[in-house]
Amino acid sequence: MTGESNTKTLPLEDLHKAAGAKFGPFAGWNMPLTYPAGVMKEHQHTRQHVGLFDISHMKLIAVHGPQAAALLNRACPLDAGALEQSQSKYTFFLNGKAGIDDDLIVTRLGPERFMVVANAGNAAADIAHLQQVAAGFDATVEPLDRIFLAIQGPDAEAALNQAGIETAALSFMHGIEPREGWFMSRSGYTGEDGFEIGLPEKDTRALLEKLLADERVMWIGLAARDSLRLEAGLCLHGQDLTPETNPVSAGLMWAVPKEIRASGGFIGADALRAALERGAAEKRVGLKPEGRMPVRAGATLFDADGNEAGRVTSGGFGPSAGHPVAMGYVSATLAKPGTRLFADVRGTKVPVDVAALPFTPHRYRKG
Length: 367
Prior knowledge:
Layout (H helix, E strand, L loop, with lengths): L7 E2 L3 H6 L3 E5 L2 E6 L4 H10 L1 E5 L4 E6 L3 H8 L12 E7 L5 E11 L2 E6 L4 H12 L5 E5 L2 E6 L3 H7 L12 E2 L6 E3 L8 E6 L1 H12 L4 E3 L2 H10 L26 H6 L5 H10 L3 E8 L10 E3 L5 E11 L4 E9 L8 E6 L2 E8 L12
Parallel strand pairs: 1-3, 4-14
Antiparallel strand pairs: 2-3, 4-10, 5-8, 5-9, 6-7, 7-8, 10-13, 11-12, 12-13, 15-18, 15-20, 16-17, 16-19, 17-18, 19-20
């Protein structure tokens, strides 16, 4: 802990300080925002080579036992039992109104063993929620104390292999426990090929020494993580997804299997079916501002007649796209790409066009 603010510090904070990181608060943690290279170079280095991210603020939760799959099916709009061994699935915790309390990735590691990756700001609530739901099931919810690293970019596999970590068996959205106490998945938050590895601190420093000896590998801070995920059209919970947002308006119903939509007994099922039947009044869209000025989260959107039409939930400059990029919600009738809207930026109406997501193509290794 740091000071009296109860801000949490990363176990590897000493390494980030030694690397020259500038820190700032995020989701209750003191996080590296940038390193000496700066956000633009960090962003482009990840797209061109390998970005190394400390994401230990996120939480790994093991769920195991005879009714582990049934527990997850109750907690999420998911058919956990239908997942193949090592398969990962993007899913949600929904509330009674079908609002998204958190978005998660669930990986099947064995017949009765699953790994849940939860967001930092929601980790304590997610653990409490899962444990509460688990009271009705023969299953154990076990929060794990791990360092969590993301290794992202076109050279990620080669860099890990050079560091002695075998990755070839994994394709996109699959995960395994390669060693005792380790969890590794081929996934990430950048749109690039990459991996996320949870491991004990005692194993981490030796691995980092090998990785950082590779000139292709560079520490990347939270600022570039945000611009990378925004270009890739990936949502940030607390901004693009909230407990007031449902998967229908967020454009995320692809994550809910059709049979689960129809008959699943998950929390929020009736509300989600009702939202599907109503259709979305507003939709999540990409937004491309005209000119070079970024349009930030919180800006109100207006249509050509000056009527309020939506809101920006994430925004910044896209170094790879070469122009400002944003995401937000607009009235369903205005959600078609090419629709011209106007964002209120400190009293100035900035032209903004609805754009298809992602802004930069995904380069996952699916084969």
